[in-house]
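Protocol step 4 of 5: obtain the predicted structure for the target chain.
Materials: sequence only (see below). No template structures provided, no constraints applied. The aim of this step is simply to have a reference model before the mutagenesis design in step 5. Sequence pasted as it appears in the construct record:
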Amino acid sequence: MRTVLTADSLWTGSNLIPYPIVEIEGDRIAAITEGFGARVEHPGAEVHEFKDTMLAPAFFDVHIHGAAGHDVMEATPEALGAVGRFLATRGTGSYLPTTVTAPLDMTLRALDGLAKLIDHPDRIDANGDAAQPIGIHLEGPFLSHAKCGVQPKEYLLEPDIATFDRLYEASGGHARLMTLAPELPGAAELTAHASAKGVRVSVGHSDATAAETRAAIAAGAVSATHTFNAMRQLDHREPGILGTVLTTDSLYAELVCDGIHQQPEMSKIFWRSKGAERGILITDAMSAAGMPDGEYHLGNFAVQVANGRAMARGVLAGSVLTLDRALENFVRFTGASLDQALRLLTVNPAAMTGFSAETGTIAVGRKANLVAIGETGKLAASIHNGELVGAPAVR
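Step 4 output (structure tokens):
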């Protein structure tokens, strides 16, 4: 099948192309040319004209626990199919299914199931129209008791290389990101060990001092998990983990930009600190994303969702955010230009995790996973594997 897309502009991940004509054959981008605003005539092709929009790479979510009523730790074709289909309609083309701290045997089973589905994406119950899991994010069990948030304290563990190796082996080598509290005994050693295996370490769920955080960065940590949340508060005499995250130019950092996890002013501080090169927008979404208010699950515990807030035991338990809304919020909260803000959902997460060859940019020969975005950051359409999965009617 041949498909043609046009828009006011196209941001490839590195440069802007005015009046683009994107030709798609099957699920791949076959050509990208400039149309100079002329009406496109391609007999036999399905043509989609997106007025007043920018085409851009599909989003990449490196921190997501579930959606559409399913938790990724179910690790079944049905669960990942439902999650992936929902994400694709909201502009996300790929993601890292993210575990939550749970009994070790439960986590090992989940990792084994996720690994098999990453290795055999054809087994995911989705008919090819779902965002793809391309690696795994381990959020726990090596987290701080003082800043565990909703993570169950009874299953937290101190950093241990042997335990990590069991987790890594169960993941089939697909563990690509791990959240770790720098102040725990053995954290620096585990950071170095995990980094040597290609697992990116993200500091978070932590009460670490600035010195402890710097030690983790020196050992190989490259990012920070949901900045501001589950972190030691900033103090002028002890900047702590938060002060270090915001002032270490080389460090990537995540942000849950829903207006709930922090106030809009904090998004401005984040933007001024991390900028277009190191900021990463995430959802931290759980199974209630895309669902009505009610009770859902995160890992093996219940979460109550009402009015956009996911709560368990009086604590925020992830979110119901989608990346398209995170982008729209971020543009509104910070005043960032659209092409700058888009980096935080595409190029930056891909670079941080080492998946730049698979996602985050648009080029001839790549999978045709794109979004059409209005000038305020609002999603106009999502194109997944060359097919529109959320868009206006075809001309």
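Step 4 remarks: The CA atoms of residues 150 and 317 lie 6 Å apart. DSSP finds ten helices and 23 strands in the chain.
Proceed to step 5.
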